[in-house]
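Practice problem: predict the structure.
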Amino acid sequence: MPRERDEPVRLTKIYTRGGDAGETSLGDGSRASKLDPRIAAYGAVDELNAAVGVVLAAECPAAIRAVLERVQNELFDLGADLSVPAGLEGRLRVTQAQIDALERDCDTFNAELPELKSFVLPGGTAAAAHLHVARTVCRRAERDALPARDTVGLNPLALVYLNRLSDLLFILARAANSIDGREEPLWRPGRSA
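Answer:
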């Protein structure tokens, strides 16, 4: 029975045995090797979503929490986009409006931060450190999506979304330290601790 576009997916059985031979189902029901670059791309997005979940599970400033809760849902949208072959109409796809929202978040949080005087080392508060981990996973997800774009085709906005999200995660890591009154750990070239 078809479901509405915004209706949640109902899962009645978690294991299906369908992937035991190294294949999995794509979002349109077709089968693909688990080595397919689309699988690597949405697998990395799934890992990114888990990393964002770790940030949310810990102490996280409320303003950042609200943004990350929206981002978590959008990452499922992104995974759905990546899991459906390009060119199929009427499927859930990342939109320019979602990218615009990320850019607004970047501008809003960055406006409150001091000018960067060096590269920032991942750390400070626990939230900032976890956000930096999420940022690095996001960069990998973007790299993992490139082979899929080149071989099977992707919604071009999917890559833009990942690129902008990694920028936002960096800014949010800085903001988490700032909100907590913590100085950012800065790179000091050639200096040993």
